[in-house]
Amino acid sequence: PAFGLFLFTIARDPLRIIILIAGAFFWLVSLLLSSLIWFIAVKVSDPQDERLQKGLLIFGVMFSVLLQEAFRFLYYKLLRKAIEGLVALSEDGCSPISIQQMAYVAGVGFGLMSGAFSMINLLADALGPGTVGIHGDSQLYFLTSAFMTMVLIFLHTFWGILFFHGCEHRRWWEIAAVVVMHLTVSGSSFCNPLYVGSLVPSYMLMAAAAAWAYLLSGGSAQNLRRFLLCKF
């Protein structure tokens, strides 16, 4: 259902496709830089020190989150300049796409690229060698990974809306809330293989972020009720 966001809301609009691909590229660059720094840190450290290696892994995850949000801010600044250019070129002085729509599409771009890499890693693990749960561990690795991938795609979409709204209205606490939620979701993965410890808080944060993004986008309880009852 997460990849349906692209099919039903973006695929028919060429401008949205361009914004989505650019957003995916920004996320990819942030991942490349964070992976490079983590790789260098691991190489120059003692591989026999398990405590140090675990600390470097935690550092890598936290640094990657912060770098992703930094690139989200850079992408916001780029799109803001793009809107000014579109307004200057348009005949009626209006942009063909609003900043709210850009925030949604950029969030989907971040989420889809994140989900694509999660799926690639999952499929690579599925090739073997070994059997999931053969030593008594949980056999729900692939199922929970799929659910975690889906929640991250949705969260990136909602975070994009919240982040852009905070930048647009100078509400820095909204930006800080996005960073904290991102750190919380990523940090909860260290609870695995106790998957309840990562999935439950992630889905709770997704519900809260979804409601928050819906309200900031101009939604209301009345509109939601009319949608659920198909009263358009």
UniProtKB/TrEMBL annotation:
GO biological process, alphabetically ordered: Notch signaling pathway; protein processing
Keywords tagged on the record: Membrane, Notch signaling pathway, Transmembrane, Transmembrane helix
Localisation: Membrane
Pfam families: Aph-1
Record has Transmembrane as a keyword: yes
Tree of life domain: Eukaryota
The keyword Transmembrane is assigned to this record: yes
Membrane spanning residue stretches: 17-41, 56-75, 102-120, 140-163, 175-196, 202-221
Any one GO cellular component localisation term in the record: gamma-secretase complex
Membrane topology designation: Multi-pass membrane protein
Subunit comment: Component of the gamma-secretase complex.
Function field: Potential subunit of the gamma-secretase complex, an endoprotease complex that catalyzes the intramembrane cleavage of integral proteins such as Notch receptors.
Family: Belongs to the APH-1 family.
Name listed for the protein in its UniProt record: Gamma-secretase subunit APH-1
Biological source species: Onychorhynchus coronatus
